[in-house]
Design a protein that fits this description.
The protein has one domain (3-91): Alpha-Beta Plaits (2-Layer Sandwich). It contains two helices and four strands, in the order βαββαβ. The chain has helices spanning 19-34, 60-70; strands spanning 3-10, 39-47, 50-57, 76-79. The radius of gyration is 15 Å and the shape is globular.
């Protein structure tokens, strides 16, 4: 079963990259992902000197394997245990 993870990556200057440079980073990441079964990149948020990446993976080891192959550090890896959004209010008994 795939689990969802948030990966915080410390990447100084990433917030100033142009689309072509971000495209190159995506290409590098995709090449590493192609070599690792059991891990899938959903999307990433770029903020200042960090990215916050959302991945599906069989386990945390797959996240670290991708970090090693891609060269993008996995500074902090957190498993997502649930998701809350505006529709979650429907489950409220108050």
């Amino acid at each position: 079963m795939m689990k969802r993870y948030v990966i915080e990556r410390d990447l100084p200057g990433v917030g100033g990259l142009k689309n072509a440079e971000l495209g190159g980073a995506a290409k590098t990441s995709n090449a590493a992902l192609a070599a690792i079964p059991g891990v899938q990149w959903e999307h990433s948020y770029v903020a200042g000197d960090k990215t916050f990446c959302i991945y599906l993976a069989e386990n945390e080891d797959k996240i670290h394997e991708h970090a090693a192959k891609s060269g993008f550090p996995a500074s902090k890896v957190t498993e997502v245990v649930s998701i809350i959004d505006p529709t979650t209010e429907a489950y409220c008994n108050v």
